Amino acid sequence: MSASPLRVSGDFLSGSGRASALVVWESSNVVPQFTVLHIPPALEENNKSRRTVALQARALARLGGRVGLLDPTGTGDSAADHGNATWDRWRDDAVAAWRWLQPPGEVPRIIWGTRLGALLAAELAADRRISPSAMVLWQPVVSRAVFFKQFLRLLVGQMITGSPTRSKSSSMPTASLAATAFIEAAGYRLHPDLIGDGSERQLDDLRIEGCPIIWREVTAAEPELSPVTTRVVAAWRAKGVNVDAIALTGPSFWAAQEIEEGTALVDSTTVAVANCLSRLRGP
Asked: Are 129 and 91 contacting, i.e. CB atoms less than 8 angstroms apart?
């Protein structure tokens, strides 16, 4: 399988009336044995993650997979401005890509999400808008509202410390999530329906049935699952969810100053997916 050359192709999809983009990695001369759809992280994390995500896509394609990397509305190679992005549109884009990747015949299908994309993937599975055979979650975000609150607070802090003579003003982005208007932040136009207001479901609220989960996170320190991860995994296992959760030593590639490669993460995920596929296929 590893000797087979890989083919990369792309297409535009119309999930919610706006074009999203999908890049597909697969073997040139092997019939796909499984499919994978990746839902990316948000904002600058998306750009920083592309190298590691591409490495993982190649590794899964060499296993015999057909791997789709989604750029939802307003991101990457997709059409429309980022200001057109809402949570519902991103969900619709992911469902459209999931259907587009549907292969002929019955093969295992995997949904894979990174950071905020992991939360979106889990929501789709919990709501049964998709029916994955397995799920891969990389460094999942637990709450959409908390994610954007942290992003905006960090940005405000950087603006203040970067400009000592500049006072906090109304022109700066606000960390309040009670926004009813668009927010301009770090070159991104944020729709209030994307940010959320804190009333949306969190990761540990979701009930994901009949779908084994491969949860991976990385840390520069001694590898240990974060307290938040421990809480969510415990909540899911209490609901009967099969979760394989592991922490690894590696760079925070989605937030690093320079582009980093999460090779340990890719290697661990590839092995876990291969083992999961073996169990799904049976003896």
From this structure: yes
pLDDT exceeds 70 at position 155: no
CA–CA distance, 236 with 230 (Å, rounded to integer): 10
Whether 158 and 193 share a structural domain: yes
| Dist CA 110 CA 57 (whole Å) | 12
User: Same structural domain for residues 121 and 169?
Assistant: no
Q: Give the pairing type, strands 213-219 and 243-249.
A: parallel
Same domain, 132 and 152: no
User: In this structure, is residue 128 part of a structural domain?
Assistant: yes
What span, in angstroms and rounded, lies between the C-alpha atoms of 251 and 136? 19
Does residue 187 sit in the same domain as residue 118?
Answer: no
Q: How many CB atoms lie within 10 A of CB 280?
A: 15
Which among 199, 151, 197 has a CA at the least distance from the CA of 174? 151
pTM for this structure? 0.88
Tokens of 236: 């899911």
What confidence tier does 184 reach under pLDDT thresholds 50, 70, 90? confident
Under a CB-based contact definition with an 8 Å cutoff, are residues 102 and 121 in contact?
no
- Give the C-alpha distances (Å, rounded to integers) separating 173 from 113, 141, 157, 181, 252: 27, 21, 10, 11, 25
Structural domain that includes position 190: 144-199
List of residues 6+ apart from 50 with CB closer than 8 A: none
Domain termination residue (choose one: 183, 199, 215) = 199
Give residue for tokens 């927010």. 183
In a domain, 1, yes or no: no
